[in-house]
Design brief:
160 residues, alpha+beta, seven-stranded antiparallel sheet, 11 strands
Length: 160
């Protein structure tokens, strides 16, 4: 049995390598920008990550770490409901921003029994800060960890 050697001419490599690299980077960039949401915050939706600054009521994504989230959990997506200078109230039943109410339910402990810090507030949203909310009544959002820096938020444009 003889081994067959395939010889690729250097001229062909000049065409094949750049085209393969271009295809690889295009696919990688596309999937890096897509967010398919499976959480209860906005289930069954597909978003495109944008670098635009969000406005109130936009869906946003942000990099977030918290002791109650799994270590491999890096990005959260929520709705931006209150921004700098808005009148904010967060209590046990709702988040109110400039008279618009978002119903909430609070969990005092995790499923494993660990206490969850609660965030309560009544006043104006501080400069450079924002409040985010998940549609699910028990969502892990600002009712637990409070303000987030507005500059960390990026818009998610709805595709489906």
């Amino acid at each position: 049995m003889t081994k067959k050697t395939i010889k690729i001419q250097p001229k062909k490599l000049l065409y094949i390598v750049p085209i393969a690299a271009l295809i690889y980077f295009a696919i990688n960039a596309t999937f890096e920008q897509l967010v398919i949401n499976i959480s209860d915050s906005h289930p069954g939706t597909i978003f495109w990550k944008s670098n635009k600054n969000p406005a109130k009521n936009d869906f946003v994504y942000f990099y977030f770490r918290h002791e109650l989230l799994p270590k491999n959990f890096k990005i959260l997506s929520k709705k931006l409901v209150c921004v700098e200078g808005d009148k904010l109230q967060i209590n046990d039943q709702f988040i109110t921003c400039n008279e618009k109410k978002y119903l909430i339910r609070r969990n005092q402990k995790t499923g494993s029994g660990k206490l969850i810090n609660q965030f309560y507030y009544d006043g104006l949203v501080p400069k450079g800060k924002a409040i985010v909310w998940g549609k699910n009544l028990e969502s892990f959002d600002s009712r637990y960890w409070g303000f987030i820096a507005y500059k960390k938020l990026r818009i998610m444009e709805l595709i489906l």
